[in-house]
Amino acid sequence: QAPTSADACLSIVHSLMCHRQGGESESFAKRAIESLVKKLKEKRDELDSLITAITTNGAHPSKCVTIQRTLDGRLQVAGRKGFPHVIYARIWRWPDLHKNELKHVKFCQFAFDLKQDSVCINPYHYERVVSPGIGKISLVDQ
């Protein structure tokens, strides 16, 4: 059974760690998830949305899960800087994701590209758009 926002940070982090896709090292993912859970602890409805989205693999529509936008838009985790929506999409959905491959879904109100004060990091509020030329299979060769 999935935890709720009322549970201890530790058990929420543990549950969310079980769903990672292996694109980041375990220690990096743990630091990133711990940092996120702490930021969301005061915003219980958003933390619950995150838990539901991740533990059901996006089976149900979920709300935006937001953190404060930093000045340069990047988040520092374990000495590394990266865009928050990309970091969490890599952890929970696409381990080999590149930063320019994400497009937000139309109902997301705080998507990174919308330049609001808050940024939605719900991985299920983004879709992967593969850049032209990357991973394309030529039909001619088949």
TrEMBL record:
Q: What Gene Ontology cellular-component terms does the record carry?
A: cytoplasm; heteromeric SMAD protein complex
Cross-referenced InterPro entries: Dwarfin (IPR013790), MAD_homology1_Dwarfin-type (IPR003619), MAD_homology_MH1 (IPR013019), SMAD_MH1_sf (IPR036578)
Q: Name one GO biological process term.
A: BMP signaling pathway
Where, subcellularly, is it found? Cytoplasm; Nucleus
Which GO terms of the molecular function aspect are on file? Answer: DNA-binding transcription factor activity, RNA polymerase II-specific; I-SMAD binding; metal ion binding; RNA polymerase II cis-regulatory region sequence-specific DNA binding
- Coiled coil feature spans: 30-57
**Top-level taxon of the source organism:** Eukaryota
Task: Name the chain's protein.
Answer: MH1 domain-containing protein
Q: Which organism is it from?
A: Elysia chlorotica
